Amino acid sequence: MGLQIHPGNAAAAPPILTEPAPPVSRSKPKKKFLPRRARDHSQQLRVGYQIAFLLMNVWLGGQFYLWVRQFEVAGSALSVARPAGVEGWLPIAGLMNLKDWLVTGHIPSIHPAAMFLLLAFLSMAFLFRKAFCSWLCPVGTISEYLWRAGRKMFGRNFRIPGWLDIPLRGLKYLLLGFFVWAVAGMSAGAIESFMHSPYGLIAAVKMLNFFRFLSVTGLVVIGLLAVASLFVENFWCRYLCPYGALLGLVSLASPHRIRRNAEACIDCAKCAQACPSSLPVDRLVNVRSAECTGCLACVAVCPAEGALVMSLPQMLESKRKRQGLPAWAMAVGIALLFIGLAGFAKVTGHWNSPVPNSVYQQLIPHADSVQHPMP
User: Fold this and answer.
1) pLDDT tens for residues 347-362?
2) Is 311 helix (H, G, I), strand (E, B) or coil?
3) 123-155: string of b/e by CB count within 10 Å (b at 16+)?
4) Which of 82, 223, 270, 281 is 20 to 30 A distant from 105 in Cα terms?
């Protein structure tokens, strides 16, 4: 305690007791402790899958082209086997065969690979959201690298206003609805008849010829989509892809979701900025949207340990440290579903269509004249 005496009448003035001033602290205020996250490898894994699947499709396309050419060129000495994997580009045939199988209980003999590949991609959507779109789809891969190139060229990507974005997103569901309506209206007998028709037998050849002999209209449309993808993230996937719409609807039933722990979140909004589907991840607890592709881009940029994970519901409810689904486990699951279902189809003899080369020799050279059997 300090003693102070007032000047003047020192004898009469009582002593005044005062507290000494506390020492001034020179230390900086403590910042909120932010646990350091372990290094995230999800995007490297995803890019590896994208490149591998793109190269596989290029190889399949090249082999399929050579297979077609051996029937088009008289006296060709080529002897190339038909790659059934090319039927992954026939999702409507896969959907038709899936209905035929569910109705009759018999696996269709024409384009069976299309059905098994569709089942593999639907299974991925159920377990890992729309992982096919962001991890495997060649069109999705090209679309992603287009908008990344656009971001480097223009310094940013552009977002369509919400009042226009929502109705545009509905276009892919309208396209999906049309295809589902068309397939639903076909009986199992009608599906089998279509598949065994000349058009059905060479449906993959018709698809190849569309790109081989691209019309001016087709070239303009593809060019416009490519330009739009430079400016808007995943333009085709976001607004027009019916396949993605189907997988998105299936993914709504997935037990796995991106989940945000509000207590661990530091509100940096990096997750929302990184989301290629423009979802407000930073304001959600569970990302339930059919637009989520399971790309894990939001999880990869999150700086707060345990704030954002892909997980099952019971994992989030646990009081222990939340790790969620590791990216490597998701990568392994995707590979097992793809290889497992394709391998099962091959082992059981339901991968290749049992069409003799003599039939292809009659149809392929005149593919342009083969008409769709349905009005």
Assistant:
1) 999 999 999 999 999 9
2) strand
3) bbbbbbbbbbbbbbbbbbbebbebbeebeeeee
4) 82
